[in-house]
Amino acid sequence: MEVIFLLIGVSLILAVTFLWLFFKAMKDGQFDDDYTPSIRMLFDTHKKSTKDQSTKPKSYE
Amino acid sequence: MSSTSNSTATQCYHCGENCESDSLKIEDKVFCCQGCKLVYEVLAEKDLCDYYNLESFPGESQKKRSSLRNRFDYLDDAETESNLLDFKNQEESHVTFYIPLIHCASCIWLLENLYHINAAITFSRVDFVKKKVQIKFLHDKISLKAVVELLSTIGYEPKINLSNLEEKPVHHTDRRTITKLAVAGFCFGNMMLFSVPEYFSETALIAENFRGLFNYLNILLALPVVIYSASDYYLSAWNSLKQKRINMDVPIVLGIISLFFYSLWEVLTYGNAGYMDSLGGLLFFLLLGKVYQQKTFATLEFDRDYKSYFPIAVTRLNQDREEVIPLSKLDVGDVILVRDEELIPADALLLSSDANIDYSFVTGEEIPVPKRKGELIYAGGRQSGEPVLLTVQKSPSQGYLTDLWNNESFEKEKTGLLEPLSNKISGVFTWTVLAIAAVTFIFWAFQDISLAIKAFASVLIVACPCALAMSTPFTLGNTLRIFGRGKFYLKNAAVVERLALVDTIVFDKTGTLTDPSEATINYVGEPLTMETEQILKSMVSRSTHPLSNRINAWLGPIEAKKIDQVKEVKGNGIIAGFKGQKIILGSKTFANFNSDIETSSGNMVYLTIEGEEIGVFHIESGLRNGAEKLIGDLEDEYQLHLLSGDHPHEYDSLQGKLGTSMLYNFLQSPMDKLEYIKKLNQRENSTMMIGDGLNDAGALRESTIGVAVTDQVSHFSPASDAILSADSISKIPGFLSFAKDSRAIIKASFVLSFLYNIVGISLAVQGILSPVVCAILMPLSSISVVVFTTLATNAVAWKKGLLTKNHT
């Protein structure tokens, strides 16, 4: 049964870590804007990095 | 990935407006104006045409855009710049702009790809809900002014106003309550875990030597809850006691303290478990309710003052040289130049011969008022037409309108107007509980002093009004949410309780009860032939003046005649030529109309052909849709008043439509309106003021509840307690009665939680309260009260039609 002492310690450390992670995320503003990221993730990125030389509108398909 | 959608050729590729001609063309794309075409060219050059693929017609029409080159010159001013910037170091500057135009995915995409247009912009990020964009740029390579100009070129001109300049934009998101909630939740969860053996104490689930450890761990975990999470309650209770009052937080604090110290005593002296887990649960649920009640409409601003309305910079003439200066540097006596569509920043005398001032900002009336040389023009008006020169008479902070803000009613907070229901009850509650506890103590003290102490503490613990304290925030929070769905946005939850007690409603007329677009038109004069009507149609359809639009609507869908030449003289009228005849439609002097026609009311538009006087259009603003029904619904229950800044010429027609039960007051200045409300308040009335313009700002502030009506919720509205979307105005009776219902629901949930308390206290006075009973009874009562209030408010809202299925 002595293992419970160890387990309590481990569980408390885990819980405190999660609490700390939550605070960190909150400070970074993760919960300030919960709408824009849902749109942002839908943007395609293929054009941003590859600069095409042709000036004409290009059609990939 | 070229867009293959073959849209109708007449729609502008950028903004989707109908194009009058297809002369502005790039490849197969047609544009309505130079501005739209320019935006497209910039984006095409930088390879950013994905903008047009994400949404069709993502842009906003660029027709009305100011084309002045030097209008951002004030941003070069070092003081202005440092006030706007959030952060600056050797290389980088950070700035946050409010851009009301942000409305779709394309907007986000383009604004977050600014670095493609100019590499000196290193970072840009959009907050869609707040319509803000944060930009980081290298200030050695691009100036703040150039950044603003760049945004303006692509059609996203930021809104910069005076209040941005005066103080740093503060981060409104209050994260403290959430942090406290997180701490309480963390501690509560762990304490419950360590208390499990206690709940099953009879079965001796776990060896005896763990109990001590678990109890001490519980004390350790309770400390952050008592010291940190509960700190707001101590403060509030202390403040209320200082004022010799008892608010809801006093019995809560009493409960917290007795729970904590009694448990501490139990653990340390007897090695028993105490009620630490209940304490954690109590704080967790209380804070949850608080977070729910704190839900605000972050995108709406309720506390605007005049500074938000005024322009940030002004063009001053200094020895015939134009210079753009920040408004704060404007002095009395300066000569300023105000161009088309610009706001007049201070009370000033007109130096130019004519001006046309549109006071829609101030009064809600959108038809410009002609002014002559030497007349005083109040701040807040907007010039339409030729640029005018003015000489400043008063500093911007001491004008006719801004004086309102210096009135004492803006000084005081709107507190103490009404004591919340819960505060009234908590006084009685606290004294009753203390009395019961004292009697219990005395009763047991004769038999067993330690049992007496236990029973005394038990009464305080179990009577702790957690359920009582939770019914108010959850009911009001939910009510707030339901109102929000009906496009009625309240500043905070306390407004709901005040709303329930309103007995007097005061309406502003122009823009609130009347809607400029619902105009009625009377034509007096020679009958118009079909041909004349067709000519008029083609004249007015080219003008953007509000009166032209109304005549256009009145003429109906007739075909426009092709006419030779049309010229609009802004603020005066339209001249057209047809088969060699000169046709003038416009103001009396402009049309050279000499004979007087009996004028009853409203705006007049005169028509002459080749100098011959043909007739006059009378244009009266009409009532808003549903206004008659609204007054009809309200007049039985409430005292109704109407305040109007206009002449009483519309009195008869208004009375005919709105009935005689309302008290009509005309020729009210902004100050009169304020005084009127003050007088009503002195007669112990609970007033609700419904207005829209800057001239109602004083009255909105003075009334028990000020409601600002606006066509565009995100647009400017005066400081108020609530913002109502104009198309929801007929729902006001529903909102009012719903506010009353939610008050009744609070009362009902009080009864419910009293029942729990009676059960709990009856156990406690006998001294047989155990931790298990406590651990079950407390959360159960809290949760059931929360469930009851939420279900009840939703049910009532359904019944009243304020909630419908297809709301998102």
UniProtKB/TrEMBL annotation, chain A:
Keyword annotations from UniProtKB, A to Z: Membrane, Transmembrane, Transmembrane helix
Record flagged with keyword Membrane: yes
One Pfam assignment: FixS
Source organism superkingdom: Bacteria
Record field: transmembrane: 6-23
NCBIfam families: ccoS (TIGR00847)
Name of the protein this chain belongs to: Cytochrome oxidase maturation protein, cbb3-type
TrEMBL record, chain B:
Spans through the membrane: 178-196, 216-234, 246-264, 270-288, 428-446, 452-476, 750-769, 775-798
GO biological process: copper ion homeostasis
Residue intervals of the P-type ATPase A domain: 311-404
Pfam families: ATPase-cat_bd, E1-E2_ATPase, Hydrolase
Keywords, in A-Z order: Cell membrane, Ion transport, Magnesium, Membrane, Metal-binding, Phosphoprotein, Translocase, Transmembrane, Transmembrane helix, Transport
An example molecular function term from Gene Ontology annotations: P-type divalent copper transporter activity
Main location: membrane
Gene3D superfamilies listed in its UniProt record: 3.30.70.100, Calcium-transporting ATPase, cytoplasmic domain N, Calcium-transporting ATPase, cytoplasmic transduction domain A, HAD superfamily/HAD-like
Segments forming domain Putative metal-binding: 11-85
Cellular compartments per GO CC: plasma membrane
Top-rank taxon: Bacteria
Membrane topology: Multi-pass membrane protein
Location of this chain's protein in the cell: Cell membrane
PANTHER family linked: ATP7, ISOFORM B, CATION-TRANSPORTING P-TYPE ATPASE-RELATED
Family (UniProt): Belongs to the cation transport ATPase (P-type) (TC 3.A.3) family. Type IB subfamily.
Protein name per Swiss-Prot or TrEMBL: Cu+-exporting ATPase
Organism: Algoriphagus zhangzhouensis
Lineage, broadest ranks: Bacteria, Pseudomonadati, Bacteroidota, Cytophagia, Cytophagales
